[in-house]
Amino acid sequence: MHEHQISPAEWEIMRVIWTTHPITSKEINAILKEKKEWKLATTKTLIGRLVKKGMLSTEKKGRKYEYRPLVSEKESIDESIDDLLDQMCDTKVGRSIETILEKSVISKSDLERLATLIEKKKAVAPEIVKCTCTPGQCSCVH
Amino acid sequence: MHEHQISPAEWEIMRVIWTTHPITSKEINAILKEKKEWKLATTKTLIGRLVKKGMLSTEKKGRKYEYRPLVSEKESIDESIDDLLDQMCDTKVGRSIETILEKSVISKSDLERLATLIEKKKAVAPEIVKCTCTPGQCSCVH
DNA sequence: TTTTTATGACTACGGTTGTAAACTATAAAA
DNA sequence: TTTTATAGTTTACAACCGTAGTCATAAAAA
């Protein structure tokens, strides 16, 4: 599991800060009002935990603090993706991508980039993906 | 968040049971010996929790119990994927798929199926994906 | 300067998770 | 039938999580 572990509730906070920074706790709470019925205290607790985890930097500005992200959104998303892929057999990844594709709306340009990438990968793709699971954790023949 | 919440440690157990069932706690533990240094008691605790969560069925067979999965692996993986996608802006999904593709080995046949699916999606794909985020949680212009 | 107020820090509390020892019931072996 | 090994259950406990009240302090207002 990754070190930079962000819980779902913390993730809500991070998304706000990734979008706008520097930002104060009050502003964060105001933005999240629409989505979560959190008391200001809750927002503060989550911010505090994120600071302790090294996800946010603080800078005192007069009476309030300004928060900034110390890890990028892309970085964090990629780690989530890694965690997801780690829990399934390598041979199932292709099928899973298909599932995602099916249930998502993807822009024309993204689809084009994906098509290009797939074309490129076809050249070196194996007939069968090698499974690296612990024997007994997938149905591949070892 | 989904009801069928499976923790990482529980996931290890489920993968064994999805692969082989019915199966006993001892057999599960033996299989996981290679990967996790769990005491038999740990395996039993996790099995117990999975039963309580309604993930496994039990059937007494002589002195031991046999476990069977009550949810399929695909179902569970799909829920994990949903949870992952739910925490990012819809406009970022394409890019994330690209990331997954880049870092994974995909078989020729899977790539082909993906290519076909992408071709099909291109026909109805929008120029720009509509963002449904809470304002302030992504950089899209609302 | 004193009072008000807003802000982060501390504390709390029930739930979940990872990890496991101790307990109990019971089938199988002696 | 008595013993024993084994299977599940109960209890444990620290860390993490969601949610939030309270407190101390410092800035702003009076």
UniProtKB/TrEMBL annotation, chains A, B:
Keyword Ligase: no
GO molecular function: DNA binding
InterPro entries noted in UniProt: BlaI_family, Cu_transp_CopY/TcrY, WH-like_DNA-bd_sf, WH_DNA-bd_sf
Pfam families per UniProt: Penicillinase_R
GO biological process: negative regulation of DNA-templated transcription
Family of this protein: Belongs to the BlaI transcriptional regulatory family.
Keyword terms, alphabetized: DNA-binding, Transcription, Transcription regulation
Superkingdom per UniProt: Bacteria
SUPFAM superfamilies linked: Winged helix' DNA-binding domain
NCBIfam families cross-referenced by the UniProt entry: CopY_TcrY
The keyword Cell division belongs to this UniProt entry's keyword annotation: no
Protein name, per record: Copper transport repressor, CopY/TcrY family
